[in-house]
Design goal:
Layout: H1 2-48, H2 56-70, E1 73-77, H3 86-91, E2 97-100, E3 106-114, E4 117-125, H4 127-130, H5 134-178, H6 192-238, H7 243-269, E5 277-278, H8 279-296, E6 301-304, E7 311-312, H9 316-333, E8 340-345, E9 348-353, H10 376-383, E10 386-391, E11 397-402
Parallel strand pairs: 6-8
Antiparallel strand pairs: 1-4, 2-3, 3-4, 5-7, 8-9, 9-11, 10-11
Length: 406
Amino acid sequence: MRRRLALLVAATTSLVLVAMLVPLALLVRATAENGAITQATAEAQSVAAVIGTVDEATLNLTISRSEATGGHDIAVFHPGTQSVSEAVELARRGRSFTAVSPSGGREILVAVQGPAGTSVVQVVLTPDDLTRGVGQTWLGLLLLGIVLIGLGVALADRLAVAITRPMTALARVSHRLAGGDLEARAVPGGPPEVRSAGLALNHLAGRIGELLTEERETVADLSHRLRTPLTGLRLEAESLQDAAEAERIAARVDALEKAVTSVILDARRRSQEKGSCDAALVVRERAEFWSVLAEEQERAFAVSVPPSAVEVPISAPDLAAALDALFENVFAHTDEGVPFSVRLSGTDLVVEDDGPGFGPSALERGRSGAGSTGLGLDIVRRTVPEMRLERSAHGGARVVLTLVTS
């Protein structure tokens, strides 16, 4: 926007200056020409005034002084002198006038009547005499135009900065909000419209924070609402006569209670700042956990993790939940014995298998096309900055997680 506004002002200023300076330049040239002709006419008349009143020597002295003063060639043609041009011959008829010389300059001819006939005073102006000082004046006008265009562009740039700087700040705040920083706020500034947009963005950010807080508190309230029915189920399980059945149902109730507690803790944890963890350590721990089940199903499980720590801006529970979701998909949607692998390379985490691959609705929340809830990949997508679904070398599923944004 700054560049476009500067170009617009430069183009507009240039058009205005051309409309003003071109006529002014022509006027300067015409004025210089008229001034040279006026001066030459005065010189010719001063010489003509002494013809017939002084002797020839005095006349020649007067001509020399006039030539030294004005810098023009002056000649006097007495009656009977051989004609040198048609203009002089015409002036001998008693006419005083200005004519164009063969060199492109001017000839000033003044006729002087005397007892012996008509004398003619000729003053010759060269093209340089007619344009003396015009080049310097035009150069000054050109420099003035360049300075004016530069000042216009500088002022336009300052105006553009006053507009674009607040808009850029608004864009940065919106990106921070999109990245999860709900405390980001814009400092209203610039034109009234930009200030109004900043206030609206702050209001929107505050409203988003309020809605998220309400949502998290609603999820947290589930702990109180579910405690009574869970307690009732536990009591029903304990009242069963069959001890094995009672233990089995109690275990299911405990698992349900742990799942509800995990959801509540996750909702509350997301209201705080995102943590960080050693991705290499988390991958090794989750791979060790799932390797037991892989061994039972006779699956080849390859794990590639660097020996050094890999710090990522994701909390350990979130990264572990994302990995568990991916491993669970492998076990749920591929046959027993199908190999799979996990590899941590730099800040990219890759999980791939040799199964049938993904269906067309793999990233649609609540739809998997394979009889599951379809929420696993959605949980992963919301945990990491970037996720890509690809085909593995053997046609299976390949999930690439980018743990750090560039």
